[in-house]
């Protein structure tokens, strides 16, 4: 039998049990023991689910209370000194302080930086290292979770982030070379591998996703050095796992590393199979990633079988494993939980559990197990039905795209001209203050939405509450002196889901939760067909808010690239085509907002950098259609309508020209965690438009004071002129509580006032 295995599994639980346990712990409603009990129950349940779905070998140590990269830093004691006392006194508090920051019991600690995991919407905590960093084993989580899985009767493979990818994904606080720390790190890895060997682990999975990136000579040398050192130790067999793309020119490097198995992604990069088979050492296992770990569509099992049979013919059955393309962390748990989806669309879907069942079907068919044939026939019927479905294609959408004029992606005038028109219209002060859009979604708001959706409340009752919340939000902003207001987004469940619910071509799940970071989960929409907008989506509540105030209210939209990136996207046409369809739907919304008197409109694109291909040679093509899509959505307005966009957790150095090409009048960005480091890209490029560098990290429970915000604005002022600077939080305030939000925004307004006073004195 060809071995069916898995690289990683969702953590949160079918009912988001881990989220609830974490947040109860953070609110001091429970203690450490109930949180750890919930974690243990989820591991037990998920291992059993994977075995029942058909996996012969299950992963362990892929579970995390927050993030697996943070777990790796903690495991090897890469704890910055400022967290050390708390980490030693209360390890769980120290761990969460690194992830979220803390401000209690006289301890005030910022969180570590957070950024996107390759081109996914999963965020990882960036380890912070320094020259001379010492590493040692801190605890034995991988060993204990392996023993736990084995005690429950499972054949388990511990999963570790590989040493080179760990360093490449880290940053150094002093600007020193990360890879110079490799020799210090490897003894800790070797010690851990030895402990896993002694515990009885036959295999360990070392994830090295950086092997699909562009690597230089130093990176390649680090890989050779690292794996040569580990080869000489007492250890289990090593599976080198790569995913999210092709090895490409790194294939010779990967093949020469002294490991015992190699995993490759044959969904993102199917063409690499022949090259891998042609150079795989004779003693090595090949794990085939033939089912998509990043998307929710049922697999083409005939294609997967053809790939598997080619590999078996070349290598023999014992050297071929079947697996998803990557960890199943990036898809929902179980499609069988969905009871409300249209039956035909539901049949097209495969979540984590179903993907393992598909792999087992492929393995059984390749061995000739006749009982697997009905599953294969069903899969063939489903794929054929999806291709033929009249729900998928809309002639009017295709015609609109075909008839699109090139001028549609350009504003009528240059930014320099528009700036004057906008200054004349809005009369904003220096350092204008605003927020990114959402305000706290309280338990009252969430409960009202649940009652409305379940039919317990009428539309009139629900609308009355939203109107009340919106009016209070507008009044609060006016009272504290914010210059450009927002309506608060109390009617919205999620920044992507809210729009998808009102667009043709989307469906939504009830339980399709995917972890974004920490306890934050999202329920990505599923784009199954051509996209169009049947009716206005946001005009009502934006116009209502604007009628309550004489100050400008921003209309708030999620941009086409972000809707694309944060959805599960159809795989039967180019992503660029789907993105342009989204752009045209949003263009209609922008023009309706403008006609309703909303003359500042924010089109959020936090996922623009996230969508960048992993290989530089592919960047230009992506950035071309991504920027064009944003401009299609934004460019139909008058010169004195101000277009904002927002981006968070992005390294801008690589894409600053593309950011400028978006031609937004104002961009707001996340900068507080990096202490304004991200602004360096804007300085080197001489970014001409206006920028709001975030001065309040909303992903942390700590509340910065006025002095801290002023200090950040002063740092921004070293890079940007006062005329360019806006003052705003890093991101939306949806996940924060009202008490901390009030305090932070009052300080934000006061920080802007201080900066204006200083400018007056300087003049």
From TrEMBL:
5-methyltetrahydropteroyltri-L-glutamate binds at residues 16-19, 116, 121, 520-521, 566, 610. This is 5-methyltetrahydropteroyltriglutamate--homocysteine methyltransferase. Catalyzes the transfer of a methyl group from 5-methyltetrahydrofolate to homocysteine resulting in methionine formation. Pathway: Amino-acid biosynthesis; L-methionine biosynthesis via de novo pathway; L-methionine from L-homocysteine (MetE route): step 1/1. The gene is metE. The lineage of its organism: Bacteria, Pseudomonadati, Pseudomonadota, Gammaproteobacteria, Lysobacterales. The keyword Metal-binding applies. Belongs to the vitamin-B12 independent methionine synthase family. Zn(2+) 1 binds at residues 646, 648, 670, 731. It comes from Dyella marensis. The active site is at 699 (proton donor). GO terms for molecular function: 5-methyltetrahydropteroyltriglutamate-homocysteine S-methyltransferase activity; zinc ion binding.
